[in-house]
Structure formats: C-alpha cells, structure tokens
Design goal:
The chain is mainly β. The chain folds into 2 domains: 212 residues, Acetamidase/Formamidase-like domains (Jelly Rolls); 63 residues, Roll (Endonuclease I-creI), CATH 3.10.28.20. It is 14% helix and 42% strand. It has 4 helices and 20 strands. It has an 18-stranded mixed beta sheet that branches. Strands 3-12 form a two-stranded antiparallel sheet. The protein is globular. The relative contact order is 0.19.
C-alpha cells in the first residue's frame, strides 16, 4: 500500500464528476489531505465575504480517484490522523444560531498551544480536531460544499469525524472522486452556531474500496458503535430514515429477528444530531 500527500492548492469548490482527479490511488492507500485557511485570513484583514467569494470558505482538497470504484460500491475511509495548524473564530451578522447578537463581522485568530485552543487569556478549550466536509462525486450535477449535505457526503459536520473514526460513503460514479476539507480545531455537537473553530491543517485517511457494499446513506463506525445517518429536509424525516437504517442493520447484518431488533433499538439505540447544512440525524447502534 502506498502513501500520498495532496497540497492545499489542489482544491475544488464542489463535488462534481467533471472535475479531473488530482490523484489516482489503489484501494488501501493512505492519503494526507492538506487544507488552507486563506479565506479566513483575508476576512480577518478586513475584506468582505463577497470580495473573498463564498466558495473559498469551504474549498475541498481533491478529488481523488480510487481505482476500481463503481456505483454500488462503498468507500471505507479510516481517519488516521488530523493536525490543525491555525484556527479562527468568526462571528457574522444574521448567520447561524447566534448571528442575531452581533451587528458587525468579528474575526479572531485562536491561539493553539499544548492541546488547548485559547479563546482569550482566561478561557481555553481542548483541541479536538475533526473533519467537517467530505464526500464523493454525485452521479449527476454538482454537490455543494456548503449546503445541503447529501447521501454521498458533503458538509455533514459530524462531531464524530475525528481520529479513530471510520466513514463509509456510497460510491456514485466510476472512481468515486473523493474530496475533503473544512477542518475544525473544535466544534460543539451539531455545530450549534453554524461555525466552529475553523482551522487549516491536514487529515490523513486510509481509503479502502468495498465492492458491492450498497449503502443509501453514509455510515460511521466509532469504537464499538455504528452510526446510521439519516438525511432529509426536516429533522423529523431524517430521524425516521436513521432509525429505519438502524433497524435494517440489526436485521440484515446482525441477524436479529424483527421483534428482537425492535426491542434492542428501544432499549439502547441513541439518536444524535449532525450538522446544520441539512436535516441530519444519526441512530447509534452499539455492538452486542
């Protein structure tokens, strides 16, 4: 198996099968994706969002073509390492959950030292790096790196997408065309303000092709728990999709009888929110 590195300049602004791949890999290869933060630096220096271009705030590195990947397969993506090198907190008027509480753009570089992110001299939080945006190319058209998120990935902002997690994405086109970006130094679950401690850095991923693994939605594996992702235009619909995915997992992959699957879900399955780009709910199924 080989290792590769992609520079932050090797970027795209959408998930799109017409974008030429910047790298082709074999199943099982490891790729380090570097990401930048120049849009936040420009905002800090006084440029407007309009002048910078909204697309520059969520650029993704890639895409990467995986040899042999076809529609109906899945990519298994193991998060080996995430490093953040610089971070920012950005408060924009009328944007996100707390945008109504500011009248001006406020941007602050967050000092990173000894595993802590310093919001001020007296206030710091643990650095808990994670990946905000990751996906493959759709079968038709383009997928936004902002919103919505899609069954093939996108700006999902899953707090669980940190080192040790394994993400499964349903392949839509030949080669899959995987791209990722939007690193965070820290983020509350479900990205409550629609902004995290936005960061530059790198993520190292081992990418394995799983032939004929048919998924309707992304799936995440963390420790001894499987996260079945549901997406829809409302949280209520996403909740039902996630729960149905979990029930089907218990039937088809864990071999439970219907009533046992129902009772097990009633007893121990947890529901968690994903990011705000679309309605995202996850049903968390523990091993047994």
């Amino acid at each position: 198996m080989s290792s590769h590195t992609l520079q932050k300049e090797q970027k795209a602004f959408a998930f799109d099968a017409s974008i030429p791949p910047v790298l082709e890999i074999e199943s099982g290869d490891t790729v380090t994706f570097e990401t930048g933060d120049f849009a936040y630096e420009r905002l800090f220096k006084g440029e407007t969002v309009e002048a910078i271009g909204l697309e520059n705030f969520n650029a993704v590195t890639g895409p990467v073509r995986v040899k042999g990947a076809e529609a109906g397969d899945a990519l298994k993506i193991e998060v080996v390492d995430i490093k953040v090198t610089r971070a920012w907190s950005v408060w924009l008027p009328d944007f996100g959950g707390l945008g109504k509480h500011t009248k001006e753009v406020e941007v602050k570089q967050i000092r990173l030292k000894d595993g802590r992110a310093y919001i001020s001299n007296r206030l710091s939080v643990d650095i808990k790096p994670m990946i905000g945006c990751i996906g493959v190319a759709p079968a038709k058209g383009k997928g936004s790196t902002f919103m919505p998120a899609y069954p093939y990935g996108g700006n999902m902002d899953l707090r669980e997408m940190s080192v040790g997690a394994t993400l499964f994405l349903p392949v839509q086109v030949d080669g899959a065309l995987l791209a990722m970006g939007d690193l965070h130094a820290a983020m509350g679950t479900a990205e409550p303000t629609w902004v995290s401690l936005e960061a530059s850095g790198s993520a190292t991923l081992t990418i394995t092709l799983e032939k004929n693994k048919k998924l309707k939605f992304p799936r995440l594996r963390v420790g001894t728990r499987t996260y079945c992702v549901g997406m829809a235009d409302t949280l209520e619909k996403a909740h039902q999709i996630a729960l149905d995915e979990a029930y089907n997992l218990l039937l088809t992959e864990r071999g439970l009888e219907p009533f046992d699957a129902y009772a097990f879900a009633s007893a121990v399955v947890e529901m968690r929110l994903g990011g705000p780009a679309t309605g995202i709910v996850m049903a968390v199924v523990p091993d047994f």
